[in-house]
Automatic annotation (TrEMBL):
InterPro entries cross-referenced by the UniProt entry: NT_sf, Polbeta, Type-VII_TA_antitoxin
Residue stretches making up the Polymerase beta nucleotidyltransferase domain: 11-97
PANTHER family in UniProt: PROTEIN ADENYLYLTRANSFERASE MJ0435-RELATED, SSL8005 PROTEIN
Name listed for the protein in its UniProt record: Polymerase beta nucleotidyltransferase domain-containing protein
GO molecular function (one): ATP binding
This protein's UniProt keywords: ATP-binding, Magnesium, Metal-binding, Nucleotide-binding, Nucleotidyltransferase, Transferase
Entries under Gene3D superfamilies matching the protein: Beta Polymerase, domain 2
Xref: Pfam families: Polbeta
Length: 97
């Protein structure tokens, strides 16, 4: 996993204040294949007992600003059943409540 400890701390602190139960890193960063143009792919398990709605989009925008990097934020429910097996193989847990 190629995120540095500061980036991981930023993500963990941010998600601790959001309706996020778990967060996983996947994609190029989880496989140490990232380059300067790579985005940070994050899969999240949301706490649906809290209202989410458009807050999900705002979470992505806030993370991009905090990390100064493009972030692709995907919820487990929004993950395609065709892509899920691939993501499940490479995902790395970086946050859990």
């Amino acid at each position: 996993m190629s995120l540095n400890s500061n980036q991981i701390n930023i993500i963990q602190n941010f998600f601790s204040k959001q309706p996020v139960l778990k967060a996983y890193l996947f994609g190029s960063y989880s496989k140490d294949l990232e380059n300067d143009s790579s985005d940070i792919d994050l899969l999240v398990e949301l706490d649906y007992s809290q209202p989410i709605g458009l807050e999900f989009i705002q979470m992505q925008l806030d993370l991009q600003e905090l990390l100064s990097k493009k972030v692709d934020l995907v919820s487990e429910r929004g993950l395609s059943k065709y892509i899920k097996p691939i993501v499940d193989k490479e995902k790395k847990l970086i946050y859990a409540r």
